[in-house]
């Protein structure tokens, strides 16, 4: 699951404070379809949690879970 280049970069981005889809896309230079696929896989594997942003309900926050941080 995390042996893929983009998954590792997404996890590193989380550790460096990236939280929103647009932040990952602009900082990593990853195509939208690939980013969407990797985020879905990481959420399905309980490595990342996907929660609504309390400041802007149109956005989603991605954060490491205990499993993802451990």
Describe the structure.
With 70 residues, the protein is an alpha+beta fold. 51% of the residues lie in helices and 14% in strands. It has helices spanning 5-15, 21-28, 32-44, 66-69; strands at residues 48-52, 60-64. It has a two-stranded antiparallel ribbon. A hairpin with a 7-residue loop joins strand 1 (48-52) and strand 2 (60-64). The mean pLDDT is 93.
Strand order of the largest sheet: 1-2
Spans with pLDDT under 50 lasting ≥5 residues?
none
- CA-based shape: globular
- The end-to-end distance, rounded to whole angstroms, is 15 Å
- The total of beta strands comes to 2
What is the CA-atom radius of gyration, in angstroms? 11 Å
Main sheet overview:
2 strands, antiparallel
The percentage of residues in β strands lies in 5-15%
Order of helices and strands: HHHEEH
